[in-house]
Write a structure and sequence with these properties.
Length: 136
């Protein structure tokens, strides 16, 4: 699927830029197949924090990439218990970073669509009659 390939290539370019030590120089910016990358599954002591099937596994993965410095024993991504507020904050941070990245070749199109959506929502809100304030 072309959309998946575009997404994978975008992620690899972003990882190359923000985590250059994790991707060999020979692979940076080339959009390699995910099958060719070696993977290592690390046991994470707090793994029960996330709910099974919870849709924020991508947020957990990004936080891991951001906080992991090569030593599992000293690794603390900041998840002690399930924290909806932290997940929301991280979700916004990572979405903004990916959308606004220079590596995102469609970022201007996305930003234009977001602005148009925001403007339409604001117009709808302005059309809703406001209730008069009650005196106390």
């Amino acid at each position: 699927n072309d959309a998946i390939l575009v997404g994978v290539n975008l992620l690899i370019r972003c990882f190359s830029k923000y985590f250059p030590e994790k991707i060999p120089k020979s692979r940076r910016g080339k959009g390699v197949s995910m099958e060719s990358l070696s993977l290592e599954q690390v046991k994470i002591p707090w793994m029960q924090v996330s709910r099974e099937g919870y849709p924020d596994s991508g947020v957990y993965a990004m936080r891991h990439l951001e906080m992991y410095m090569g030593d599992v024993d000293k690794w603390n991504p900041g998840f002690r218990k399930f924290n909806e507020a932290l997940l929301k904050k991280l979700r916004v941070k990572y979405c903004y970073s990916m959308i606004s990245s220079e590596e995102n070749v469609i970022r201007l199109q996305i930003i234009d669509k977001v602005k148009a959506y925001y403007d339409s929502m604001r117009k709808e809100e302005e059309q809703i009659p406001k209730e008069p304030q009650r005196r106390r």
